[in-house]
Structures are given as C-alpha cells and as structure tokens.
Amino acid sequence: MGKRDVDDDDDDDGGKRRKASGGFSDHAPPDDGQSAEIQLDQMLAGGAGLAGLGMGMPGMGMPGMGMPGMGMPTPGLSVPGASAAPELDPLKPATTPMDFSKLGANMPSQEFPVPRDMVEYLMTPEHRQILLEETGCDVDWAPDESKVQLKGSAEQIRKAQRLLQRVLMHCNWGRSEAKVRRLLKPKIIESAVLRLSPMNTLPAGQKTLSQTQPVISIGKDKKANDIVIPAAIVSRQHCVLELDIDRGAIYVIDCSTNGTFLNGLRLPPKTTGKVLVSHGDELLLQDPANDQEFGYVVNIQELNVREQTKLQAPRRLLSTEESATMGRDFQ
C-alpha cells in the first residue's frame, strides 16, 4: 500500500473526509493546480493576513515555514492592532541607566580654618567658583565657624589648601575682595606705571616697570636707588619694588635693617619672602608706632595685561644665591 498524503478521519455524522495538510482546511486547491506555496504568496499579496491563513489562534504557528507559534508576529508581516516593537541593534551592547546620586559621596574632605576677619573678603560665591575652576575641588563656606570645607581628590584638596594659604599669607598686609580675587586667579601684568606718593615731605617717585626695567629702589645711596632719602633711619638700600614678570604682579622686598612696613605690618626679610603690593597700599620706611606718615601711598596704573593664568605648584626651590638677592613669594 502506498503512503497516504491525507488522513481519513470518520466523524460521527457519516465519515466525511477532511483535508489535514498544512492547515489549509478552509481553502480548496485552485483549479489550475497551483502549489500551496504559490497560493500562500497570492493570499499574502491580496492582504489576507494571518486571519485568512487560519493562524490567528495561539499555538497555530507554522514551524516548517519559519513562522513562530504562540501568536508571535512573523518578521515582515503586520498584525492589526499590534504596536511596533523597537528595533534592536545587534552590534550595540545593552545599557542600563546610571545612578549619579551618590557620585563623590565617598571622596576625601578636609576643613580649612580661616581667620574671622577674612571671612567677609574670602567667602563669596565668585571666589567659590574660582576655587572650583582653579583646583577642581568642591568648596563649601562655613562663615559661622570660620571654616572652608574642601571635598575632592587628595591632589585637588592639596591645590586648594595651597591657594588658600597664599591668600591668607599675603592678606596679612592688607585685605580686600579685589586682592583676594587677584590672589586666587592672578592676571599677568607685563608693564605698569608705579607712582609713590609721599605722605609727608619725602621726595615723590615714579617709574614705568617692564621686563627691561622691572625694579624701583628706595634708600639713602644716591648711586644705588631711584628714590634717595638721606635720613639716618633709612638703610643704604631700604626696600625694592619689583615687577615679577613670571607672576605678572608687583612685589615689595625689605632690604633694610630697621624694617619696612606695609599697611602697618612689618615685612619679612628679603631672604624669607616678598609680598604682593596692591593699588592704595601704604608703604612705611619705619615703625608706624614712631611715625605713621614716614612713607608712601602706592599707586599702580596697569598698562599691558595678559589673560589670567593658573599658578603652577609646587614651585621650585630657590638656590642660596637667589634667596639672598631676590626674596621669594609666599606660596
């Protein structure tokens, strides 16, 4: 007996025969003898869709034709009422949302104490932003406690501490918001007119400071100084004001025996350091306890100024010869 292409199932009503080939029970073969594949192509082209193929019921998939079961849509076919699923790029790795809420929570922090009389000049929104830009360290002011809260990496905290130390050191000889801003974010002065206006009968002085002529000197020696003061209390070379080209600012160096005073406070000796000078500072050539007007008011007119720059730290150590002749900035 040959292999049968169809199954004969007798029903209860009289043994009527049903087609059981490929799930096309509702469609009779075409008269012209077309194959099932051609029939399927025609039905799809005519918009019959899955419903016309008897495939609308769950579990009626067609594995032999690459059609998944369980009601899953077949690629290339549209199912009425079904929303289009987003296409996934097989070359793109799957991603998950990132949580940044705890970013920096475990970073190191450090408190930096500030003198109470510096709080109003230092703790401003602008200075906080400058510190963040210059060091990368997050800064929180605590004015009631006279403290600065620093948060960041160890290197960022170190840079912020160094910058704050520089501000506090130079502000020992006078403080203002403008001075703090200059110390936090220096601007490079390439040339400036320096005028020394006497507060009593001392001779006035003026000089344009630049890279070629960066120094103005005060003392009793006529050959060694720009401003000569023949007084017993004045040293041969009493003090020097210089335009530091590298830092782009004017500093004062005490070279005297009896002392030079900036805004009422004695300057350190030249071997220890030099101090930033600002417009309007008072420069006295003797202790103000003895005479509060034996000196000058400093006037600075900036001529050429370059863009602001960051300080590079750590600064190199000065040689013995440089320390004896130049003095160094407090950083």
From TrEMBL:
Domain (FHA) ranges: 216-267
Molecular function as annotated in GO: RNA binding
PROSITE patterns: FHA_DOMAIN
Span list, region Disordered: 1-35
Database matches in InterPro entries: Cell_Proc_Reg/RNA_Proc (IPR050923), FHA_dom (IPR000253), KH_dom_type_1_sf (IPR036612), SMAD_FHA_dom_sf (IPR008984)
One Pfam family named in its UniProt record: FHA
Name the UniProt record assigns to this protein: PUB4 protein
Organism: Symbiodinium natans
Classification of source organism: Eukaryota, Sar, Alveolata, Dinophyceae, Suessiales
